[in-house]
Design a protein that fits this description.
The chain is mainly α and about 150 residues long. The chain has one domain. Helix 3 packs antiparallel against helix 4, helix 4 packs across helix 6 and helix 5 crosses helix 6.
Length: about 150
């Protein structure tokens, strides 16, 4: 794993958590909605004793547990990334890496913040990545999509 792949894990995990939170919100909406009655004839030998919304609530609880585990991993990863970035000796490179990977800023936002051009920011970013010392036991969230432009 390259230092760039390691550092950008936090952004990908944050996106995954936000997606899971949106899914949980949709499930909550479904669990409180009233379903229409079925008037067609059905022959059923066994009947489910649980109300229809119970399955939805079980899925919500399982998803919330998954989200909590991901949030714990996200907090650990962010803490480790901050520590790794603090080891970069050059202050400008450190600031670019921090704004990019801790604060998830775009190149333009970083350039505005540091009063530099985007090309200077990208150059400092590349140089900063070469000075990143990977931790001995890095937090890894799984396979990243390498086609992602971030």
């Amino acid at each position: 794993m390259t230092s760039k792949d390691y550092l950008r894990q936090a952004y990908r995990l944050d996106q995954r958590i936000n997606s899971d939170i949106a899914e949980a919100a949709r499930l909550r909406e479904m669990s409180v909605s009233v379903s229409s009655p079925a008037f067609d004839e059905r022959v059923q030998t066994s009947r489910d004793a649980d109300a229809p919304f119970v399955r939805c609530l079980e899925k919500i609880m399982a998803l919330e547990e998954h989200i909590n585990r991901e949030i714990d991993l996200y907090v650990d990863l962010k803490e480790q990334i901050r520590t790794v970035i603090e080891t970069v000796p050059n202050m400008d490179e450190r600031m670019v890496l921090k704004y990019r990977y801790v604060h998830n800023m775009t190149w333009e936002q970083i350039a505005d913040k540091l009063y530099e051009s985007v090309s200077t920011i990208k150059r400092q970013h590349g140089s900063g990545l070469t000075h990143v010392k990977m931790p001995e036991t890095p937090v890894v969230i799984g396979k990243l999509d390498c086609s992602d432009p971030f």
